[in-house]
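Regression test case RT-17, inverse folding.

Input:
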């Protein structure tokens, strides 16, 4: 028998305090429950939450400018667009290095496409410059080769830039001739980064790209022309003391090259770019590069609401470029019309199903569910056959004499066609919640109202309809949310005036490849839906929404 006179906390059978033992058991129970739902939770996080988060990030991410033109972005910070003149020689020298590297890596066209979204025409400027930028480096390469032909050899650059240990490992890798073996990572010679910063950075990029390719070593790969223009820029400012700090390097070769650079005629990078294309003297192009050089930008969201970042701040786009606000308004209006049409047609059908005998109601319910057994594409294509001017409906109207053959109705490739086709497709999503709620309304309520003197309309409006409101709310939310993001049906039957904002999002993802703008449009659409959901909850109350 237990000692009932014992004082202190109650204990479990193993001597553990009862409170602690209960907490431990509750924690184990929660962990088991979490493990049970873990597969579903991981699935939702990976397939739903992660894509949405990635979409939201892409709507503000803009690192391509600073990644592709890092030196130019830094040099542009001191440029004042209000001067009305293109940037100076320092910016063009930085652009020369960045652009030649981008052309070697084939990134200049991607950057041009990105900036073309903000300044139409800049993409062709970047493509044309990509074809001519290499000539700048070749000009300097010819000068170095005229001085010493060994400057053209890859081994010369490898010995100048690489550390002794890397050179030994690289020689062993080349001698082994085993291309599957990992290529030694490039290691810069001590003192090079301080004496020749631009050349060191360019050679690191060159060595990295060669290593990624994996077929050759930097010491047996033809050096990029940009290395010569970068070295000329570094030697123009490097002092003999700075060059002498390079550990074990060929100082005499660098000193000779520095002397040759000092004695050569001044080279204008600005004139070189203007020779390639006069648009490099256009202030507007440089304003675009500077405005979109930060790693994060509101530019995509501004474009999504027909605004742009101008020299004086945010401003409206030209009238002929304003399309997205109109598309948002059209999408919301047509989604509301489709939802209202579904309610207007679905309510009497649901009432009929809820008040028929079960056997008859089940038979008719098959007709409601029948569209789910048919492909969405087939159903939409059927409406193209029915609604076109030479289609079934117009033929019947002409046969009945309601319209003449020359005045056939235009019912497709417009908003009417989209509303008709989508009402048919979304109608089951309105009928099913209404039916499930109406089945729970006792018929005795209507009989009681009529027995107290109410007319049929009064009994319906004052007694039956309020009880069906939860079904109306559920069906309306389902139809509206599905309609606002629909893509296939508006694309096939909507024409130019009947498409939704979702069609524009699909265009930017698959055709124009402007993923940032597509992400911004999608984020705004998501925000609008959440806002309407919040308003609905405040006005009607989400607790009143029932699916059965």
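Golden output:
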């Amino acid at each position: 028998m237990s000692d009932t006179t014992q004082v202190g906390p109650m204990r479990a059978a193993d001597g553990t305090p009862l409170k602690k033992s209960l907490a431990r058991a509750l924690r184990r129970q929660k962990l088991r429950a979490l493990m049970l739902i873990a597969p579903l939770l991981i699935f939702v996080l990976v397939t739903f939450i992660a894509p949405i988060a990635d979409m939201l990030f892409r709507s503000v991410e803009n690192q391509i400018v600073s990644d592709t033109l890092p030196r130019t972005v830094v040099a542009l910070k001191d440029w004042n667009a209000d001067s009305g003149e293109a940037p100076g020689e320092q910016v063009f020298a930085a652009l020369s290095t960045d652009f030649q590297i981008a052309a070697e890596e084939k990134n200049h066209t991607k950057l041009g496409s990105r900036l073309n979204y903000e300044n139409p025409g800049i993409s062709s400027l970047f493509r044309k410059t990509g074809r001519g930028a290499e000539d700048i480096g070749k000009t300097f390469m010819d000068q170095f080769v005229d001085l010493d032909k060994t400057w053209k050899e890859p081994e010369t650059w490898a010995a100048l830039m690489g550390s002794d240990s890397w050179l030994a490992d690289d020689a062993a890798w080349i001698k082994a001739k085993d291309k599957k073996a990992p290529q030694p990572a490039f290691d810069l010679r001590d003192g090079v980064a301080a004496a020749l910063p631009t050349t060191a950075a360019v050679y690191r990029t060159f060595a990295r790209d060669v290593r990624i390719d994996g077929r050759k070593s930097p010491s047996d790969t033809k050096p990029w022309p940009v290395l010569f223009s970068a070295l000329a820029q570094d030697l123009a400012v490097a002092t003999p003391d700075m060059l002498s700090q390079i550990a074990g390097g060929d100082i005499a070769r660098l000193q000779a090259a520095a002397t040759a650079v000092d004695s050569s005629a001044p080279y204008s990078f600005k004139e070189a770019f203007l020779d390639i294309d006069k648009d490099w003297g256009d202030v507007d192009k440089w304003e675009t590069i500077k405005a979109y050089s930060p790693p994060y930008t509101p530019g995509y969201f501004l474009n999504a609401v027909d605004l742009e970042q101008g020299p004086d701040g945010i401003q409206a786009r030209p009238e002929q470029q304003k399309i997205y606000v109109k598309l948002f308004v059209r999408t919301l209006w047509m989604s509301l019309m489709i939802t209202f049409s579904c309610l207007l047609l679905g309510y009497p059908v649901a009432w009929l199903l809820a008040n028929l005998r079960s056997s008859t109601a089940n038979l008719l319910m098959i007709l409601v569910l029948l569209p789910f057994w048919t492909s969405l594409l087939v159903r939409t294509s059927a409406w193209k056959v029915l609604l076109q001017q030479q289609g079934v409906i117009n033929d019947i109207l002409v046969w009945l004499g309601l319209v003449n053959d020359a005045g056939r109705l235009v019912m497709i490739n417009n908003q009417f066609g989209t509303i008709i086709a989508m009402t048919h497709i979304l109608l089951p999503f309105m009928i099913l919640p209404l039916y499930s709620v109406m089945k729970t309304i006792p018929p005795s309520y209507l009989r009681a109202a009529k027995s107290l003197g109410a007319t049929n309309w009064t009994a319906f409006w004052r007694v039956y309809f309020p009880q069906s409101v939860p079904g109306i709310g559920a069906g309306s939310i389902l139809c509206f949310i599905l309609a606002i993001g629909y893509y296939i049906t508006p694309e096939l039957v909507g024409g130019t005036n009947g498409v939704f904002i979702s069609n524009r999002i699909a265009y930017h993802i698959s055709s124009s490849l402007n993923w940032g703008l597509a992400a911004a449009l999608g984020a705004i659409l998501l925000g609008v839906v959440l806002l309407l959901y919040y308003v609905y909850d405040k006005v009607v109350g989400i607790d009143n929404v029932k699916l059965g």
